[in-house]
Amino acid sequence: MSDLLKYECDMRTINVMINSFSIKEIGNARGRETTRAKFITNLGYLYPDYMDRLNKCTEAKTLKDALDGTNYAAMVAEANLDNDGRNEAMEEGSKIDDVILAESSRRYSMAFENGFHFGVFFAYLKLKELEIKNVTWLADLVSMSIPKNSPGWSKYTIPFKYHIGAQGGYE
Questions:
Q1: What domain count does the chain have?
Q2: Per-residue confidence (pLDDT) for residue 132, from 0 to 100
Q3: pTM for this structure?
Q4: Is residue 74 part of a domain?
Q5: 95 and 74 share a domain?
Q6: Rounded to whole angstroms, what are the CA distances from 96 to 10, 55, 116, 147?
Q7: With a cut of 70, which residues of the chain have pLDDT below it?
Q8: What's the pLDDT at 47?
Q9: Do 72 and 21 share a structural domain?
């Protein structure tokens, strides 16, 4: 349970950092740090060791550099952090939210591989939320009359997908 909560806090911290890049009102360093501090928790694997480096981030490249050496560096490197304002259903590549959802799905599914603990209930609810989000996303694509060959139709995350196989790896 502790691992899942720390992961959630770290993902929220990364999202706050990315979303703060586009806010022009917090241009100076002091305003940026105080505004971000309102939304960042004091829990997670990034706290307190990486918080100084994260608070100095002003763009996507510096965020990637700040997360270097963490478990989240590969996730951020995989995501397209450029916000070009295009329609998400017609856009190629993975946004940071898509990458976070895929990793969250893996972590929540893996919570069932351990013994009985309260994290199983938390993981089950989060995977059900993901399932509802997928259905809503597909219904929105239908209502917007998006063509079937557009990239938006493949932007869903399968919950309850991962488990440990006979050889000990993820399947």
A1: 2
A2: 93
A3: 0.75
A4: yes
A5: no
A6: 13, 19, 31, 24
A7: 24-32, 82-93, 162-171
A8: 85
A9: yes
